[in-house]
Amino acid sequence: MTTPYGSILYFAVLFAFLAPIVIAGLLGKRMPVYNAFVTLVFIYMMFASNTIQAIALIVFVFWQLALVRLYFNYRQKSNHGGIFVLALILSILPLFLVKVQPLLAANTTMIGFLGISYLTFKAAQMIMETRDGLIKELNSWDFINFLLFFPTLSSGPIDRFRRFKKEADSPIDPDKYANLLNRGIFLIFLGFLYKFIIAYVIQTNAITGLEYNLHHHVQFGWSLVGYMYAYSMYLFFDFAGYSAFAVGVSYLMGVQTPMNFNKPFASRNIKEFWNRWHMTLSFWFRDFVFMRLVFWMTKKKFF
Q1: Which Pfam families does the annotation name (predicted)?
Q2: Is 250 exposed, middle or buried (0-12, 13-18, 19+ CB in 10 A)?
Q3: Which DSSP symbol is given to 140?
Q4: What is the Cα–Cα distance from 190 to 260, expressed in whole angstroms?
Q5: The whole model's pTM is what?
Q6: What is the CA 3 to chain-centroid distance, rounded?
Q7: For position 203, what pLDDT does the model report?
Q8: CA angle, residues 265, 224, 231, in degrees to nearest 5
Q9: 161: number of Cβ within 10 Å
Q10: Where are the domains of the chain?
Q11: Quick one: CA torsion of 230, 1, 41, 91, rounded to 10 degrees?
């Protein structure tokens, strides 16, 4: 399995395939068919060495497509809450099984694959927005294109379907794309700095030594505190680097995928930190879980 954004070779192949998209964007044209071809190529690279995960991905996509289409068709005629809950449960079911199965058996789950969590968030989001009447029309191609958009496939950021579709359907302005291209290149270089330099330095020069101290009970208290901070910084720069790659490549493809981090360690409190860390996931839970729960509890007069 080829890890996305994991090697220089990956980027060399990536830039070779993105070159026609960049040229077309500077000319004010979109290439939806070629974009789909590039997506298939990189999904193949991700799963070529793991047939089981590849099959699981294909089955998952058709499962979610069937659920979303069936619920969309139903929603045009009726709006029963029980059907909505059933559709949502069935959408989340594969992810639930993947998370629960290791607790029940020692062997690795047969239905899991890289990126299943983020794809589940996208699919469940579609069902909830259909329930709200926000999605007025649904094309299978648009759904699959949104679900499998390869720059964000494995670990986000989590986009919104209506925003993604509106942008994908709109023509490209060459001047705006040139600015987007510059920003995308900057983010890719920022990703290199974060992931391959800063995160690597923290891993090799801080975490490794602190882990040794902890295992051998050398200055255990100070080592534990140091490890906590060092690993937090490593986690940020590694994940923020990946997110910068994903957003930067999205920009090169003419899609303004939302940013995932906004200087979280400059936050003044925990609430602000959470709103700056993995923002698309935080906002997803805010919009599709917390706000709905508050609305439901208010409607039922819990408070």
Answers
A1: MBOAT
A2: buried
A3: H
A4: 14
A5: 0.91
A6: 14
A7: 92
A8: 40
A9: 21
A10: 31-170, 177-299
A11: -80
